[in-house]
Amino acid sequence: MKFTKFGKTLLMSALSAGVVLGITSCVQSYSVGYLYVTGTATAQSSGNGIISGFKIDHNKGELLPINGLPISSGGANPGRAVMLTGGRFLYVLNQGVNSSGGSTCTTADPCQNANITQFSIGGNGVLAPQQTFYTQGINPFRMIGDASGNFIYVLDHDSPSNASCSLALGPNATSCGDITAFKVDQNTGRLSLVVNAQVTSASGTALSYFPVPANPIDFNLVSGYILTVSGTPATGDEAFPYTYNAANGQLTVNQNSTQPLNIAQATAIMSGGGYVYVLTNDPITVNNVTSPSQILPFTIGSNGALQSQTGGAVPGASSLSNPIVLLVENKGKWVYVANQGNNQDKNNTQSGIAGYVIDPATHQLTTLPGSPFGSGAGPQCMLEDPSNQFIYTANFNDSTVTGRVIDQNSGVLNNLPGTANRNYPLNGPAAWCVVTGRTS
């Protein structure tokens, strides 16, 4: 069976001069920032993807290409990337290709030769490949790091053994995905497996992975739990928590089982400001206005259970579709959601950024005046720069990076100063983006 959400994802933080000059303290905290974008354009005859890179001008938000980039990503079909605390190492998840050489991987036709490639980051932002590592499951497609930079986790769509699913998830689990956990050597950046200390295989040996419910869509690490959202339109979506041990990276099944979310088209699970947000393409009607998507805000309760935030679901922008990334900006005043729209549309229809104001007392979200804001076509990722002034999206459909400046008073996203629209070209479709800053 083809898992539509997974394949779809594979196809895959005007400002006046006076305001710019008035922002001084945050700009002086950083001497340089670098933004890196993984992409599916091939770098060589081997079919490997690429990594592009830009130096960020913290005064104007302009992006300047880094000399020596793009370079090979170390494998085919690069997707997610992780930049660990300190900005010394970059890790890229190369998802591989299926039997026909395509990037749409399914349980029946899995991707081959997937890997994680480690890069060191030089003083001028240049990347140098280091080592290659491998997950324990099949069809890896998501990767996150913990806040300390000590552990990296990869979500595999398919477990290497269906027989192990019931051992961790109960007797009714006949198939599952998994999480591969790695410990990071702080000196070399080398990854080593974190073995499952709670669950053993039928033969009595420790599992080298952590099973999650079948058809995983996305996962996130927040408030001591790794939360995975899984499901299909036919079965509905659910959340599953693992308790996370910050000392050794262990994941432990707790007393809370899977939790139905009462949606069927989840696209991502994100976090910010201590809250959890599930993005979904399920439509919602409020005051006789129907939006094609919604945001489900949650707090985390006992044993990782998600508790609906006051006010419940929040409508997405009625003109946008397919929410893919949510960002809570640094001051915790505004929320931005990047909407991918139609994956094949290069005219930017239904692509853009929806903005919301966070009520400081209730944490409820209300639409930001002026929302939605423009992006490139088909944004795959969104991030805020290290000086907390600019937001960038890397875009699949038109192969660009788009920069916008945050109005520090209103939260409105304006064009970068001195231009009507600022899109920076890439060598091919974007897959994911990460950013790092270095202090003076």
Care to describe what's here?
- The chain is mainly beta and 440 residues long.
- The chain has 4 helices and 35 strands.
Task: Describe the structure concisely for a colleague.
This protein has helices at residues 4-10, 17-22, 25-28, 165-169, and strands at 32-39, 50-56, 63-65, 71-72, 78-83, 89-94, 115-121, 127-133, 138-145, 151-158, 176-184, 191-193, 210-213, 216-222, 225-232, 236-244, 251-253, 259-260, 266-272, 275-280, 284-286, 289-291, 294-300, 306-308, 314-315, 323-328, 334-339, 352-358, 365-367, 379-384, 390-395, 400-406, 413-415, 423-425, 430-438. The chain is mainly beta.
List the helices and strands and how they pair.
Layout: H1 4-10, H2 17-22, H3 25-28, E1 32-39, E2 50-56, E3 63-65, E4 71-72, E5 78-83, E6 89-94, E7 115-121, E8 127-133, E9 138-145, E10 151-158, H4 165-169, E11 176-184, E12 191-193, E13 210-213, E14 216-222, E15 225-232, E16 236-244, E17 251-253, E18 259-260, E19 266-272, E20 275-280, E21 284-286, E22 289-291, E23 294-300, E24 306-308, E25 314-315, E26 323-328, E27 334-339, E28 352-358, E29 365-367, E30 379-384, E31 390-395, E32 400-406, E33 413-415, E34 423-425, E35 430-438
Antiparallel strand pairs: 1-2, 1-35, 2-3, 2-4, 5-6, 6-7, 7-8, 9-10, 10-11, 11-12, 11-13, 14-15, 15-16, 16-17, 16-18, 19-20, 20-23, 21-22, 23-24, 23-25, 26-27, 27-28, 28-29, 30-31, 31-32, 32-33, 32-34
Termini separation: 52 Å
Give the integer mean of the pLDDT values.
89
What is the tally of beta strands? 35
CATH superfamily: YVTN repeat-like/Quinoprotein amine dehydrogenase
**How would a crystallographer describe the biggest sheet?**
5 strands, antiparallel
CATH architecture: 7 Propeller
Report the helical percentage: under 10%
CATH topology: Methylamine Dehydrogenase, Chain H
Number of helices: 4
Kindly provide the radius of gyration, computed on alpha-carbon positions and rounded to a whole number of angstroms: 21 Å
What is the class in the CATH system?
Mainly Beta
How many domains make up the 3D coordinates? Answer: 1
Secondary-structure content class: mainly beta
Strand content: 35-45%
Poorly predicted spans: 1-28
